[in-house]
Amino acid sequence: MATMSQIHQDAEDRMKKAIASTQQELASIRTGRANPQILDRIMVDYYGTPTPIKQMANLSVPDGQTLMIQPYDKTALAEIEKAIAKSDLGLTPNNDGSNIRLSIPPLTEERRKELVKLVKKYGEDGKIAIRNIRRDATDAVKKLEKDEHLPEDEVKRQVDEVQKLTDRYTGQLEKIISDKEAEILKI
Length: 187
What we know:
By secondary structure, the protein is an alpha+beta fold. It is about 60% helix and about 15% strand. The protein has helices spanning about 5-25, 55, 75-85, 110-150, 150-185, and strands at about 45, 50, 55-65, 65-70, 95, 100-105. It is elongated and about 70 Å long. The mean pLDDT is about 90.
């Protein structure tokens, strides 16, 4: 049987993970600047095994609009190029025989609006995850009330604590989302 502090700790740990997950999703959204994290989701068929680009190559940002990919194994160059071309990034890889350069074009107004919608969707998914964690924690507190015969005012106090935790992490998530939106809309 979980104690109140275990319920709170579990809820807080899960909320932190929900925020980290949302941040990771947001990092993979392309803004107007070069960022190696946009390649995180792209898998390359490397000798029959789907492999992330960052495990196969050195990624660098020579300037704000260019990503440089230097494969450790030059024979993988064509496969990396193919994976980027097939991806949903909308970028054309330039292969010079030893490296791949990705020029990050400035975003159009229409593309910026699409990306802001995507950011809001990821943010909403994160909020839903946090609310689900709140529901689980509240249910656990109420189950403890029945099993341990806790006084009603103690249960109400614990449920209020869970709500404060929820509000704190939802607030953090909203700030992360608004920062990402500002980054996308900045020209």
